[in-house]
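User: Please predict the structure of the protein below. I'd like the answer in structure-token form so I can feed it into my own downstream comparison script.

Assistant: Understood. Taking the following sequence of 243 residues as input:
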Amino acid sequence: MQKDTANWFASWFDTPYYHILYKDRDYAEAQHFMDNLTHYLNLPEDAKILDLACGKGRHSVYLNQLGFDVTGADLSENSIAAASEFANEKLHFKVHDMREPFEEKFDAVFNLFTSFGYFESDDDNITTLKAIKDSLTEYGFAVIDFMNVNYIINNLVPEEVKTVEGIDFHIKRYVKDNHIFKEIDFEDKGQKFHFTEKVKALTLNDFEQMMEEAGIFLLDVFGDYKLRKFYKNDSERLIMIFK
């Protein structure tokens, strides 16, 4: 079953298989990251946070447990439907295209775990940055947590098989046309599936240029979830704080 890869994220993220494949992500590490981030940003107790591209809302839920007023937004209707089961008066979920700014303003906008760089066009990436900036209060901060492209490419595992819930996911990774591709093939219930993940290989330099064009001030850059210094070749993450 071939999905339209021109807009691959709209289809792949909406399948249950996406959530099966990635179910073992390290959520303890993610929670420490949220602790470190909210502490570093010194957010007031009742701060309003936008979790942009929130998926099924795990980080939104945790941020809400820390006491914040959280809105989780994602393009995937299925993910938002699943996340909405956790909603309360200080935790809201909505289907939203990240290229569009929100009418309401937030004290912080978080875009976590490489949820950027999916669009074909650089203009869309700049539009997204502008939308994030326009969704901030006067004193608000935004955070993009992206992969460190140099580290990823240097440590790329070309082929592997991951077995989750009895499904063998055959994964191939490669770099082409300044994008990092991940081809995912598997069978389930007698049916063959094929999906392609494709993320633009954006470096810190690329982000700096886009941010300059978007009128954004890059305030700080970190290299991991403990908010340690960013090293171009050795850091696993590229975490940017801006406004």
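That's the full token string. The longest strand covers residues 136-147.
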